[in-house]
Amino acid sequence: MGIEGGNTSSKSGNVDKFLSPPPGFEGCSKSVKVDKLLSPPPGFEGVNRSSKSGNVDKFLSPPPGFEGVNRSSKSGNVDKFLSPPPGFESQARFVLRKVQEKTNGFRPGDADSFQKLVNSRPWIVHDHTTPSSGVLKPTKPQVHPRRLPRVSKKVVLEEAPVFNPTEKEYNDTLSYIASLRDISEPHGICCVVPPPSWDPPCLLGERKIWEGSRFFTQVQIFDGVQTEDPKIKKETDADSDDDDTFHKAKFCRTELGNEYTLETFKNFADSYLESHFRVKEKVLASMYSSPSVDAWPTVADVEKEFRKLLVNPFVELGVLYGNNIDTKTFGSGFPLSGSSESCKYKTSGWNLNNTAKLPGSLLTFDDCESVCVPRLSVGMCLSSQLWKSEKERLYSLCYLHTGAPRVWYSVAGCHRYKFKAFMESFVPKVSGEQSKRSYDSVMAMSPYALHMEGIPVTRCVQNRGQYVILFPGTYYSAVDCGFNCLEIANFATLDWLPHKEIDALQNQEKKRKSLLSYDKVLFGAASEAVKCLKEYSLTKKETSGNMRWFNACGKEGMFSNTVKSRVKKEKSRVQYLSGPLKPQRMKESFDDVSKRACCVCFVDLHLSAVQCSCSADRYSCLSHMKNLCACPYDKKSFLYRYTIDELNILAEALEQRKLSCMFKWGNIDGNYCASPAIRSSQPGGDKGKTTDEVMQDVETGGKEQMKARGKVRSIIEIMNVKEENDNESGPVDPKPLF
User: Fold this and answer.
1) How far, CA to CA in Å, does 665 sit from each of 201, 299, 646, 654?
2) Helices 691-698 and 518-539 meet at what angle, rounded to 10?
3) What secondary structure does DSSP assign to 642-683, as a single string?
4) Binning pLDDT at 50, 70 and 90, where does residue 672 land?
5) 615, 635 Cβ separation under 8 angstroms
6) How far is CA 93 from CA 97, 124, 139, 193, in A?
7) CA torsion angle 168 174 176 180 (round to 10)
8) In this predicted model, what pLDDT tens digit does every residue of 229-246 receive, in sequence order?
9) What is the per-residue pLDDT across 471-523, written as a single tens digit (0 to 9) for each?
10) Cβ atoms within 10 A of the Cβ of 18, count?
11) Which of 118, 400, 475, 488 is deepest in the core (most CB within 10 A)?
């Protein structure tokens, strides 16, 4: 034992035949005859062995991954059996060699026969074509629309939060909505149930509007499954499976319908609801002599039917829908000023005619009727609002005046890009016409399918007399459970500014014109903030308006940092402005047109612009100055509203809350001392005159006007000395400002 591999000095060589080496020593050098019986251990088959017999290499094969290694074998025949490892073949040469070998047997006109032959060879790469010239050209792979996952009937969506404010909380609309943001914004939607005392009269039921006001409807047609947009022609998918049609996306066509009043539309909606849901119950009741069923379908019944409509390819339906009805011409459901005896509902912030222009809403700084005027929505059973997002990513406040409930489905703004990528994956962008189209506005996508793809969807049921709040960037869809009338209004608070900044940049990149001017809203709000901060510094009155801006400004304030960032970007653009342009401050006539836009990217030109003498009404932004015209630089002018030094004063007034900078900006911002005073945003606010009102009164004539100017100058000088002593900042310019 243990000496099997030893060198035995036996006279008889046959002893070695019965001896076997111990484990691990099988490859030891032994006599030639023994080598014939020995095989290399696993993993060592390719080791170069010093065997006298060169025939051993013929039976050796290299280990996996080493087939292409250059071996110094005496016999050159081994390389004939070696092939390169997987992944190291030259694919292009392989395809070219095969094509050349096969084309030798075909004539130039046998392209179809040759293509069939190539397709029958799985080793040929089919991304290459063989034209008559013989040169291989790559072709684009065919992109087919993806298919929906099969949705389980047990999927349950998350419910939206519902709030019941007290009478005191309900009085301040925007402050209460701001308190709901942390809880509701991750869902994108929430429901507010007003206190029992809130019961505004619905003016839509008055005879003048109910029977007299007319509106055009839209016909929503769900005509089976479509794998493509009907407006865009594209080849059908030859590899699709007809039995798998439940997995394809479904689209809804919209056509212009007839004109209706609210009375005639309700009659049509009720008759449709009865014929669609109650025919079966009446037939069964007559067959079994049971009393007729008078109960209307529940919300669950309508949702079940709507789910079938979106998923089942054999369900076809057409309904009417009144959408985006302008209340300025049709009439609002809320009482307007002077149209009702109740002053409570006319002045309330929950009256949607007042919501857009409430103190604290940034829409007060840009008068755009398309977003500031409320709009009506009139629905019937199974009429739906397909997936969309609010314009300019604004807040949306919806009130259900009368009728059946509406079911909302929302995808929060934090999942916005994942939602858009999922929707666009069903219609590949194969043409420029398709890329300009928004798929989320016409695709009838089931919210349950989105949930199956990992996109959180929130469900919210809105009943009569309740409000629904949609947060910035939210995508939403809705279905009506019967005839109803909703009124919708937009508003914007300070936390909306980052959403609008992103929207403005995307519009500029895609060369789309914005409805709202980001710079006009931002710097209009900045001037309002300076007024409130100045009033608070002088009077210490903690009104809701003053404290709103005080909390948003400062070194760590969100609003002051937003203004500072915008000033920094403008400074960079002006600094690297190419060419010696003549600077010129914007005249009042520049604002005669509601919104000046760049002729190239359509970005708003509120802060700065470039103009050429060759065209008086043509402007460009600083980035597209070269695209304005071919004229030399000396014929172009650089138009600006504020200088960079003036914008730095504004940023310092907001960030440092320096009173001297506030007075300086007041002088810069167009005769600020004569502007109307800041009043409290609440009804019955602070009485008595503020600092601005005192200045306006004393500036009514002669000596009193000079005294007022002297007071302002003395205040600035006192504040400059105080700030220098406190070392709040560097030295302040002591030059007189008035």
Assistant:
1) 46, 57, 7, 10
2) 90
3) S-HHHHHHHHHHHHH--HHHHHHHHHHTTSGGGSPPP--SST
4) very low
5) no
6) 6, 11, 17, 72
7) 170
8) 433 333 333 333 333 333
9) 999 999 999 999 999 999 999 999 999 999 999 999 999 999 999 999 999 99
10) 7
11) 475
User: What is the band of 633 on the pLDDT scale with cuts at 50, 70, 90?
Assistant: confident
DSSP state of 729: S
Report d(CA 244, CA 311) in Å as an integer: 12
What is the pTM assigned to this prediction?
Answer: 0.70
Q: Is the pLDDT of residue 657 over 80?
A: yes
Both structure tokens of 721: 């000395």
Start-to-end C-alpha separation, the chain:
115
Residue 625 buriedness (CB in 10 A; 0-12 / 13-18 / 19+): buried
Structure tokens at 366: 């840009």
Q: Which of 293-307, 504-518, 640-654, 697-711 has the lowest mean pLDDT?
A: 697-711
The conformation of residue 495, written as its DSSP 8-state character, comes to: G
Calculate the CA 475 to chain-centre distance. 8
C-alpha torsion angle, residues 260, 230, 317, 438 (rounded to 10): -70
Percent of the chain with pLDDT over 90: 40
Tabulate helix, strand, coil % of the chain (nearest 5). 40, 15, 45
> Is residue 479 within 8 Å of residue 305, measured between CB atoms?
no
Q: Which residue has the tokens 């801006």?
A: 549
Q: In terms of C-beta distances under 8 Å and separation of at least 24 residues, what long-range contacts does 541-546 make, across chains too?
A: 541/686, 543/680, 543/681, 543/682, 543/685, 543/686, 544/172, 544/175, 544/359, 544/360, 544/680, 544/681, 544/682, 545/359, 545/360, 545/678, 545/680, 545/681, 546/678
Where are any strands of DSSP class E within 375-531? 375-379, 384-389, 395-403, 406-411, 458-462, 467-470, 475-480, 484-491
DSSP 364: G
For residue 459, give both structure tokens.
């469900």
In the chain, what are the domains? 158-225+249-425+439-492 (2.60.120.650), 503-670 (no CATH)
**CA–CA separation, 683 and 686 (whole Å):** 9
pLDDT per residue over 555-584, tens digit each? 889 999 999 999 999 999 998 876 678 889
Q: How much is the pLDDT for 472?
A: 96
Angstrom distance (rounded) from CA 307 to CA 296: 19
Give the H/E segment covering residue 257.
Answer: strand 253-261
Measured CA to CA in angstroms, residue 561 lies from 646, 647, 650, 713 at distances of: 17, 13, 12, 29
